[in-house]
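ok so heres the complex, two chains, lmk if somethin looks off
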Amino acid sequence: MMQTVAIFVGAYRELSARKIFWLALAISLLVVGLFACLGINETGISFLGWTFESPMFSTNTTSPETFYKLLFVNLGVDWWLGVLSTLLALVTTCGIIPDLVAPGSIDLLLAKPITRTRLFLTKYCTGLLFAALQVFVFSTASFFVIGLRGGAWEWALFAAVPIVTFFYSLLFSMCAFIGVLTRSSVASLILTLLAWTIIFTINISESIVNSGRIANQMEAIKIESELANTEDPVDEDKREELTGDLEKTLANRPTWDRAHFWFFGVKTFLPKTTDTLKLLDRWLLDGASMPSRNEESERGPQQAFGPKRVKRGEFQRAVKADEQSHSIWWVLGTSLVFEGIVLGLATVIFVRRDY
Amino acid sequence: MVSSQNAINNSAIDLANDLAIDLTDVHKTYGRKIRALQGVTLQVRAGEIFGLLGPNGAGKSTLVKIMMTIVRPDTAKGTVLNRGVGDPVALARIGYLPEHHRFPTYLTGRQVVEFSGAMSKVDRPTRKKRASELLDRVGMGDWKDRPLSSYSKGMRQRVGLAAALVNDPQLVVLDEPTDGVDPVGRREIRDLLIGIRDEGRTVLLNSHLLSEIENVCSRVAILVQGRLVAQGTIDELTSSSRRYEIVVEGSAPAWCAESASVRMIPAGQMLSAGIQGESCRLVFLGLDALGAQPILDRLRSEQRTVIAAQTVRESLEDLFMRAVTDPTTGLIYRPGAVT
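and the predicted structre for the whole thing:
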């Protein structure tokens, strides 16, 4: 325990010695400060006394509590913590493992009465300290903003700390693996970003293909329903059009199903970075009245992508319901398996190598 | 938990056979070709300063790294501090300073020493107390709360020494401890090593500076191409080269030619400056001053003038050069041994 504490204290000292750590922390507080400056009233969104009229965002459609939660999840977590802060964290921590295995540094640690496995895994955990501290500060500041401005003291906000840290751990496990393999900070950073981009692309592709598959199914059901209701012989032309559309839709179904099968199969073996962050949506915004669910949106213009005969809101709800049909344990479990394999390989390389 | 840690730190390991390091048949091959160590046997007695010598690539660092578990041996029998190689209890009782150490430069000298203590499982109050004492002892008392980034190389070396001693080690392994240290600092480190030995600790010193080794080490070992070619006290190792030299006026006596142990050197060839006229130097191999007295008596009885008489033996440098030179070719052995 004494050694673990010493390594963590050393990691904190290392972080606090880096300007980028304090810069990221300052930006975090700045982002929360901007949230605090934003408000919502009957006509729209206010910012430092100015009001910007909005039919979508007003107290008529969204409560202040939901408005701030949406800001926290969609901007704070998804963009700031999930992308920009993560990039800063990777830049800051990509050198942890290469520095550990650098000649002159590793000698000092391996000569101590600590097993190599414990040393490596403890060092890996210190790499998560940056992300954990950033999210904790961000969540705490957001907690007070939502409490004071939105009137809701939402403790569930702190769920962001383990979720975002876990999300970061998925990326950092790859960073650690590449770091121990190449002993290069630059290679660790670049290859991790490349891997993240590939995973993100596969996730997005699966999401698009899945939406197409759902759209196809909903369209077919809608057409069948309309066909059943079109019994008037005068509407023979319409019946013909519907039958043609149905045949086309059903003909496309195997293609959508096959494409989704492969994308979903590949995704299953990869870490669910996007899905992990979306877990916050489930917990924080469950039941909240999303602006996209209002009546205007239900009647909204036809979308470029999606079923033509199904309302947009209905389609979006179906897609969201399908996404959330994956259990938390599927999202976390398969990601954990991936992380375990990557970390396991990195540990084996670290343990068996001569320095 | 705490009490067991203290037990590790506070109790010295009993060295039943009086050997701090007792290694036999240490083999290490890097890849398939480079045979870094080829059956090295090394014995370091408790309480001595032992010098490990060898040219670059001889396997010295590999041997030290095997003891410190940084490199995994192919085979390594024997013990370090009476425990198997890599035993955590023994590692907690060893202080180690690697050659090109890299302490984090954002830490202060005190933090470096305390971190080293914590990693060796020294409890917090003890390591704080020892950090201050040791930094004062290595002459870094006034700098202990400044970051390493402001230190010179020599100052970092001193802090490294303090860090190696923070766990009150029974065995101190130092790889080039005076690297980058000025002559005054070298003298201070030499005194420190002698102080460490006087406290009953064992020191294994790996250094290229032969004079440094000669001044402080009671025993040495010479490694060449992964093999131990010599091990013992400097006296033992140079005894075979011991000789007695007498310089007399005139040509060599006739009886000298009859003795196989006398080598005659032509006049003037190796005489020191200032000696005039014909003279002859007689070299008696394996003879000391006492054994030379009858020869001196005989020379005097023959009315010979003895210009000089002295015992001569190899310096450590001569011994080292002899060990690292291929006797058949007269060339220095190449670094490492490739199969």
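quick notes: The CA atoms of residues 41 and 59 of chain A lie 5 Å apart. thats all i got rn
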